[in-house]
């Protein structure tokens, strides 16, 4: 049965770690249909948002500011989408959803990065879970670019 998250990548795999705070980890997602897509995952096991404590919410809020500034400075998207989907966990017989956020930069116009064109065909609409794997060297370049702004 397919239980991986379409937005994150493979099951149990959020991507490459680019930053860590006290309560959360930021990963550059394997799929880059929307250039700069990241996953922000809680460091502890937590099923639902109502189980987050005050310190986790505060730390998350600080990460939102940090990540949006970093990606704005490096990639200049038009806007950001944030979502907390856990639907794919329930495709298995023994679901174990974990709180994590999808950070999806959105672009009104075509963007070129590392000589690759990125077009946001769904701009103005909900992002679609269509996977786009970019070359490893491009993924590493993107990771380093964002990571420099986060540290």
Automatic annotation (TrEMBL):
Residue ranges constituting the HIT domain according to the UniProt record: 16-108
InterPro entries registered for this protein in UniProt: HIT-like, HIT-like_sf
GO terms, molecular function: catalytic activity
The name this protein goes by in its record: HIT family protein
Organism expressing this protein natively: Methanobacterium alkalithermotolerans
Lineage per the UniProt record: Archaea, Methanobacteriati, Methanobacteriota, Methanomada group, Methanobacteria
């Amino acid at each position: 049965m397919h239980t991986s998250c379409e937005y994150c990548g493979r099951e149990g795999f959020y991507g490459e770690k680019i930053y860590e705070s006290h309560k959360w980890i930021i990963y550059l997602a394997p799929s880059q249909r929307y250039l700069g897509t990241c996953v922000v995952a809680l460091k502890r096991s937590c099923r639902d948002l109502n189980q987050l404590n005050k310190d986790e919410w505060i730390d998350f809020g600080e990460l939102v500011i940090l990540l949006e500034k970093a990606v704005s400075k490096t990639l200049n998207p038009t806007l950001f989408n944030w979502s907390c989907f856990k639907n794919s966990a329930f495709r298995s017989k023994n679901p174990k959803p974990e709180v994590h956020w999808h950070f999806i930069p959105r672009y009104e116009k075509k963007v070129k990065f590392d000589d690759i064109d990125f077009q946001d065909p769904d701009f103005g609409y909900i992002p679609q879970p269509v996977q786009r794997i970019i070359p490893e060297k491009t993924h590493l370049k993107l990771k380093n670019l964002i990571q420099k702004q986060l540290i």
